[in-house]
Amino acid sequence: MTLRRSFLIMTGFLLAGATAAYAQIPDAPQIDFPYAGNRTGVWIVAQLHILFAAFILGAPIFAVVSEWIGYKNQDPKYDRLAKEVIKVTVILYSMTALTGGLFIFVLLATYPDFTTWLIKHFFLIFAIIYPLLFILETIILYTYFYSWDSMKGGKKARHIALGVLLNIVGTVTLFAIDGPTSFMNTPAKAVEGLSLVEYIQTAGLWEKMANFSWMPLNLHRLVGNVTFGGFIAGLIAAYMYMGSKTDEDRSYYDWMGFVGNMIGVGALLLLPFMGYLLAYELCDYDASICPYMMADQLSMFFEMQGAMVGLVFLASNYYIWLSMRRIQGVEQVRMSGMVMIAVLLIPAVMGLAWKLFPPPEWQSLLFLAALVVLPPILSRLPGLRFTISAFTMIKVGFLMIVVADAIWMTPHGFVATQAMATEHNELPSWASELALMPAKNAAAFTLVFLTIVNYILYNRAIRQGTIIWGKIDFASQFVLIFLAFSAIWTMGLMGTVRSLTRKYFHVYNLVPDFTTEAFTPTLTYSAWWITGVTIVFFAVVSFAIMVTLRPGSGQKSSAPQGVPVPAGGK
Amino acid sequence: MAEQSLTKSILKKGVIGIVVGVILVVVARATHFPEVFQFMFFLYAMLGALVFILLDAPAMPRLEGAKAVVGLIVFYGLLSGAYIGGASILPQYDPEIEKGKIDKVLKRRKAMTKQGKADELIARAKELNDRAAYLEKQLASLGGGAKVVVEEAAAPAAASGDLVALGKEQWELQECYNCHKLFGQGGKKRGPVLDNIGNLMTPEQLREKILDPKSWMAEGFDKPYKKGKMPDKYKDLMFDEEIDALVAFLATLKDASVNTPKPIKMK
Fold first, then answer.
1. Rounded Cα–Cα distance for residues B244 and B191 (Å)
2. Are residues B260 and B193 in contact, defined by beta-carbon separation less than 8 angstroms?
3. Is A94 an 8 Å CB contact of chain B?
4. Of the candidates A539, A471, A501, which has an alpha carbon nearest to the alpha carbon of residue A327?
5. ipTM, interface predicted TM-score of the complex
6. pTM of the predicted model, to two decimals?
7. Could you count the other beta carbons within 10 Å of the beta carbon of residue A569?
8. Taking CB atoms and an 8 Å limit, are B34 and A426 in contact across chains?
9. Over 50: is that where the pLDDT of B158 sits?
């Protein structure tokens, strides 16, 4: 009995000891991201990951469109362009995975509670759907690239179909991961009788995915990625042009830069409207986000955005100008003077129209239609048939781009928060309309309209004149680099703004951020990090271009180039 | 030849830019734009001049080899400098202002978390420790007839502050001023001016409006009401005591000289 009792006591002690030992797993140490701090650490890694992800999603869209055009027109230049872009993409794909993994590690180490919370709410996405899509995308990307040479001729259509499939999977992947991302901005609106916390605890995955800002974010990122792909193709072309040793290569990369810029700018035209849609949905979700963005802590971030967008539009139109200057016979290209008058009137007319009939009211479309349709009609009337040269038109256009930039950049007051605005730094009351949305929309529309007019002129010039590829002003290559750098910097800035709109919450209004870093950083601080991340991204991309395409190595072009050809000729 | 024409172009367009800039400044001054805007208009004129100089600039010579690489690095350096510099010359929001606010807004929520409770215990233990050390020091210095002085702990600020002052603080913390003008400040016409709301709504009605923004509508604010512009979030974000304080503050707003729109019961 005593033995039995002793045995039981001993077993009890052993069990208690083991349990205590098990329970006493020492706490993990607190992590402080070196130098930058936890919040900025996550910011750096996340932004790098997003830039690489945008590359590997944007470049294949650009590539498959290019491959398809080449196949349709039987033009090998487009096929080479597509293949070169995909070559760089394959190299950078690993960087996307690497930074993605790093992002999760850093997030789990620095914000363990919140990260676990988010993963649990989107477990199906994080643990199954996203990894599966990523693996599928990897398989398709590598198959697409490595089958390029073997799937020629009769198999080309199937190869293009593979490229389309790659883009579909890529887009679905983007949409899937945008779910948790947008959820952090606009989790949900509580239903009647339930608090937000109660609602989220019972909401299904789809209800959390399909939140207010999900689809606007999807569209914004999708269009942004196409812009990204176009400008990166322009960057590749600029590097290769600079390193080209032969006229043949110079001709090809001059042409590649032109195509990259055209696609980039084409998508860029939609971006202001996509951004507006996203901002509209954020404000619709919670009207207090709007003043925080436009009038309070983030107002100067938007001032900087205005400057950046203005510069990007100026540069893209300057590239068109430089492209046109080398077209022989461009002097004969003319346009109706009525278009010039319409261009001069746009900011005022559309500003007034949107003031009287704010979007989405349809009446403002009448003004828009009048500005677009009336010039060609009026120019047919006797007495109004005066024309101006393409160069005059473009110069007037540049003048109006500067005016539009000025309107976009005019704030209500030059203060960090409009709550501090006084008569010494705010617009006089009679001019306050300049700072409101109708004026900003009119400015954005002017930039878009002018860019379209310039492309119409460019098209006329290449139809009527003779273009010599490879003879473009060397400054144009710096313009291409400028466009890529500035567009990516602006992406970084707006990504920062989107994250900051959560204010002191990890998930807006739902999961507070109790750390000491949950405040709005200054614009200067943000600009340093955005620039740093952009430089690191450019260094890696530049390295990838050097390794894969080796500028100056004199690769054979598959199409005869370097001689004058009729513009638009294949 | 090309250099000469570029210099000529810079001079000509530079002068035009300055003339246009000066005209803009004069007009802006006459129409009461503050100096910062006048300066901005001058910069736009110079930007226009720069654009037109670039448009007519002669073609740039090719850069090859090391020159091209150096050119690229310098170009990236210039861009980086320009963007950081550009961002830095704009007015900067001082994070310290926001930090204090965030601490106040999240204080009670944080206290309810495990971490918050642990922090509170640590703070109390530290306070007790300090008091014990203080008493020990006093005891050690005890001479004949010396008296131990025990300092009373300061009463919590919230307990001593009056409800209306706390309500005014909630007005600031919840940033109501972003949409509602009060005492001539804030608002920007997003929501109704509230200087006389205390004469138009009872405390119960004010509470009802804060907790359910669709329950009342300000006359003339049909569009914002229909769009649900007033956020339906305060019932989730504010504690009862905070709402009581805000209501108490709003109920004191009785300036009949200000035209506060009439509230209309909707639900």
1. 21
2. yes
3. no
4. A471
5. 0.88
6. 0.88
7. 9
8. yes
9. no
